[in-house]
Amino acid sequence: MRATSTDQTAIIVRIPAESPALAANEPAVWKPTAEDQPAEPEPLRNPRLTMLAWLLPMLVLAGIGSWGLATPGLSEDELATWGMVSIGWTDFREVMANVDATVGPYYVVERLWVALVGDSDLLLRLPSLLFAVGAAGLVAAIGIRLGGRRVGLAAGLIFAVLPGVSRYAQDARPYALVLLAAAWSTYALLRLLDRPRAAAYLQYALAVLLLGSAHVVALLLLLAHLLIVVRTERDRRVRLSWAGAAFVGLSPVLPMLYLGGAQSGSQIGWIPPLSWDRLAETPDRLFGATIVAGAVLALALSALSLRPPAQVATIWALVPAAGLAVAALVTPLWVPRYLLFVVPAWALLASMALRRLTVLRGLVAVLGIAVVAVPAQQAVRTSYGHDFASRDISLIVRSHRAPGDAVLFGPFTDGDQRTSRDAFMRYLSPTERPADKLMARPPRTGGTLGAQECPDREVPSCFGSPARVWVIRKGSYPNILQNIGAAKEQLLRTSFVQSQTWSVKGFTIALYSRKPTA
To answer: Do 147 and 50 contact (CB within 8 A), yes or no?
Structure first.
């Protein structure tokens, strides 16, 4: 079945060549039942209203996303992005050959962007905001295609006010790009099924290419697309052509998938096994707050259906999550943000539940979601809103530093040394930094993410005899020397005494002074 719009009361569809209606050169008309069309169908005769239905969510998300865009310090992963865009192309290629290959396309986009505009926190995050704004418009456009302007407007607005969406719209990582690619590929699929032309297949292939380049887990969306095609398209040629377009879009990504698979130990080794607790925390992480997740899911669950117009959104919301859960039983892969690309589907389902209401009541419901989301929106816009108060390290060091100070970092395990050193280097200029005496080779050189330090046996000779030492660790440590490494611990315990400590979100900082000589 191929419909020009579910907003119309009569829809022209393709029918088999052997159909008597076709033989008689008569148009075939399918009249939707009440279950197959919106409760109050509305012809799309006014293009300005249709444009407003997808433009308004974009403007709302642009406004919310711009609020406090540069306020939070860079998170651990964002610091990794900054590190990868601040090195030369030779070092970049060497690191990609060993680690983070699947994030490589996003890094390339950021490198080109930074080369044009600079690498301030705001500018690093601005591409993500633009991607999310585009996704909001596409979510609304999908809703318009599935259920009319009211559904599209409500879906786009619900999507735009979610704290989970604006959180990643302000994140210098590829997740907002994933949202854009997921929405674009699904919109392209609906166009393809509606009018299977060469241009539609090309658009879909390009969207799939973007989807796989943005994040490999997002390719689980293709399972949902497969089921949508099987359930809605009876023409075998269209089914095969869809599969061909998907393969064309996927093919350029395959080398990256192969390289990423070889690096999987370093890229996913930190992910814990799937558990009921991890499943339970997923709605809060995706939507940005438990109360917001409850409100949206309560609406969406009432609209779940494998009948039009909810069929596409239902499959999109459920199938990728089920696929990731199954994969996570084999190898740890369950990270809530990896499923961010299903959030548009839940927004669409919630909007379909609201279509039973009047326009005014529907807008009041959306406003209610926005209001209960305010505390969560404020929380992600503090200096530690991205879980790491990385900028606060520079404020502390700058306020208490003295000439001749040195600095020590933790071990390589769990990103302790890399993240702490990245935050230190990001927010302190070379002239402000205490001397990093143990660093023999800078981070992201020689094909590795972390810096190379002096061997343990050479720590005393490399370190020299500074009067004061800063110790910066990722994490919360009542005893900052815990698991710091035998050589560093011995150096500090033997020659220094702790004079002051600070604890900020994500980091522990201590200042040591040299013991007076006897």
So the answer is: no
Q: pLDDT digit string (tens) for 393-408?
A: 999 999 999 999 999 9
d(CA 78, CA 306): 39
Query: How are the residues of the chain apportioned to helix, strand and coil, as percentages rounded to the nearest 5?
Result: 60, 5, 30
Sign of dihedral through CA atoms 231, 232, 235, 241? negative
Element (H, E) at 86: none
Residues in CB range of 243: below 8 A, 6 or more apart: none
Residues 357-381, mean pLDDT to the nearest whole number = 93
CA distance 111 to 417: 24
- Between helix 416-427 and helix 390-400 the angle, nearest 10°, is 60
**pTM of the complete model beyond 0.85:** yes
What one-letter code names the amino acid at 301? Answer: L
d(CA 491, CA 197) in angstroms, rounded, equals 71
User: d(Cα 125, Cα 108) in Å, to the nearest integer?
Assistant: 14
What is residue 257's predicted lDDT score, i.e. its pLDDT? Answer: 86
In this prediction, residue 38 has a pLDDT band, given cuts at 50, 70 and 90, of very low
| Lookup: tokens for 318 | 């459920």
Q: Would you tell me how many other CB atoms lie within 10 Å of the CB of residue 430?
A: 6
Nearest residue to 352 (alpha-carbon basis) of 285, 312, 394, 300: 300
Q: Are strands 496-504 and 507-514 parallel, antiparallel or unpaired?
A: antiparallel
If you compute the radius of gyration of the chain from its CA atoms, what whole number of angstroms results?
Answer: 27
Query: How many angstroms separate the Cα of 122 from the Cα of each of 125, 135, 143, 215, 490?
Result: 5, 20, 31, 23, 41
Question: What does the pLDDT average to over 185-203?
Answer: 96
Task: Say what the pLDDT of residue 67 is.
Answer: 96
pLDDT digits (tens, 9 = 90+) for 198-246: 999 999 999 999 999 999 999 999 999 999 999 999 999 999 999 999 9
- Residue 196 pLDDT class (50, 70, 90 cuts): very high
* C-alpha–C-alpha distance, residues 94 and 88, integer Å: 10
Distance between CA atoms of residues 449 and 419, nearest Å:
10
Residue 518 pLDDT: 60
Pairing of strands 496-504, 452-453: unpaired
Identify the burial level of 250 via C-beta atoms within 10 angstroms of its C-beta, where 0-12 means exposed, 13-18 middle and 19 or more buried: middle
